[in-house]
């Protein structure tokens, strides 16, 4: 079994959250995370884009940079980068597999350990690491962190992180310790962080805090499934109400003054998300919607999603197959907006690779 096939066979969810397995695995690997300082990117939405923007800014300063992002859209290889290029993911996983099996590490712990080991082998000057779930008990909370970036906070994974914005924010803030914190403007964080530690800003401010001076470069960052522009089509991984709101506001802001966007939406939403609120946000830029399925067992059936969507949209159709749904969306009228689930984007990317 290949390393990637083995990784695919593992459950993404641990039996119990905690850092014991991760620390045991890293000890077996010689604690590669101690070989370099890190910028830790934590939050609900926008983490991958922030991480890669920081990467590109630090590369412009002549630094050797390792980057870990998640989730991926079309292949696992998207998750681990050195100097902006994907590493040999199969080899990276194979390097840690024996140790991971011995320690009982989870899927995300294995990928994180593989990334940290790859960075040490590449002798990076800095690692930019995106957290997975929360912060305090996340597998990435093992770094020599010099700067923490906190993006927005929203209700997510409430059974693990807490049932209020403040509880979730505290879970994410637990990674900060004494490191400087760069916070995107967010009232929830502002109440919880000591002002002497905080700089209001974003990816640029984080990179500049790390190097200690202004950075001139202005990188144009593109990632699969993150406001990915194609011919008459945009694909975005917005998969919760806050992410959808941010996407919709960005689309509306991109219109010529006074113009109103009118997309055909092709959408799949997981059953544990607030689909009604997400559809309400999506209606602000789309009047037509094609509801579809994704490969996730948690996805709402296309017919059920269509039923919910009819409360918001003038024209709704249900097409279960994602590829056929996208084709139907283009038939109904461009531009087309594909959003609501990263699983949907992954299914479409996989279908394109197989053609």
Shape: globular
Distance between the ends: 25 Å
- Report the average pLDDT across residues: 88
Order of helices and strands: HHEHEEEHHEEHHEHEHEEHEHEHEHEH
Measured as a percent range, the helix fraction is 25-40%
Strand content: 15-25%
Uncertain segments are: none
Number of strands: 14
User: How many domains make up the coordinates?
Assistant: 2
The biggest sheet amounts to: 8 strands, mixed
Structural class: alpha/beta
Strand line-up in the sheet with most strands: 4-3-2-5-1-6-7-8
**What is the helix tally?**
14
> What is the CATH C level class of the largest domain, in words?
Alpha Beta
Task: Jot down its keywords.
355 residues, alpha/beta, UDP-N-acetylmuramoyl-L-alanine:D-glutamate ligase, Protein-Tyrosine Phosphatase, Chain A, 2 domains, eight-stranded mixed beta sheet, six-stranded mixed beta sheet, 14 strands
